[in-house]
Design goal:
- This protein has 9 helices and no strands.
- It is mostly helical.
- The chain starts with a helix and ends with a helix.
Length: 233
């Protein structure tokens, strides 16, 4: 029945088109009935073929959804790692700013840890996209890019800033490092669960992350609630 419904419109287009073309050629242009009929069938058949609706793409399987999510996580970790490596101002180097050097190291560690957990065989073998994968994806696509974005913005402003402004920018790197550390802790918590063969739902993860960030008293921070809001829908 579904197949008949799918072919009903193309059939009507084909038959109607063939008749219109045949009559037009025969009566209007005085083609012979044989030639008019042949051309009508050809044109009507082409119209019918074009009118057949395309088959919808099949829904991805749970395994395909898991693979796609983990690919997205790994790609996000690599992309953010490249942004961190590109931080080139003295803000992130040695004696100029010890907190800056530490923050950059923590950012890089968060990227590497995120990629590593998303590559674990036990998480690749998950039967569906669960709370662990959802949090990893939110970190890779929202929260980590936000934190790295803060670092990139400070890196951009630092070279042309006044001495007082430079000191203020340097002080902000401590908060960036703290945020990177919390993300690493959240990823490490998932890593421990994977090794132990357990998992947590997304609400448990969000409660943990929010509690950790609530302890930070910093003005320059990423909007984590916005990043996680859709996970609670």
């Amino acid at each position: 029945m579904a197949r008949l419904k799918r072919l009903a419109i193309p059939s009507a287009v084909g038959v109607g088109g063939a008749l219109v073309v045949t009559l037009g050629l025969w009566l209007g242009l005085e083609f012979s009935p044989l030639i008019a009929g042949g051309l009508g069938l050809m044109i009507g058949g082409g119209g019918a073929a074009l009118a057949i609706p395309a088959k919808p793409d099949p829904e991805p399987t749970d395994a395909e959804r898991v693979a796609a999510a983990l690919n997205e996580i790994r790609a996000g970790a690599i992309a953010q790692g490249e942004r961190v490596r590109a931080l080139g101002s003295p803000l992130w180097r040695g004696s100029t700013s010890e907190t800056g050097a530490a923050a950059k190291k923590r950012l890089m560690a968060a990227c590497e840890q995120l990629h590593g957990v998303a590559s674990l065989p036990d998480i690749i073998a998950r039967s569906h996209v669960d709370g662990d994968i959802l949090l990893l994806r939110a970190i890779a696509t929202e929260t980590l890019p936000n934190v790295v974005g803060l670092a990139v913005e400070n890196d951009r402003m630092y070279p042309s800033a006044s001495p007082d402004a430079r000191a203020e920018i340097a002080s902000l790197t401590e908060g960036i490092g703290d945020q990177a550390r919390i993300l690493s802790e959240a990823v490490g918590r998932i890593e421990s669960d994977v090794v132990q063969g357990t998992s947590r739902d997304i609400r448990q993860h969000l409660e943990y992350v929010r509690a950790r960030f609530a302890k930070l008293d910093i003005e320059d921070s990423a909007d984590f609630d916005r990043a996680f809001r859709e996970l609670e829908a």
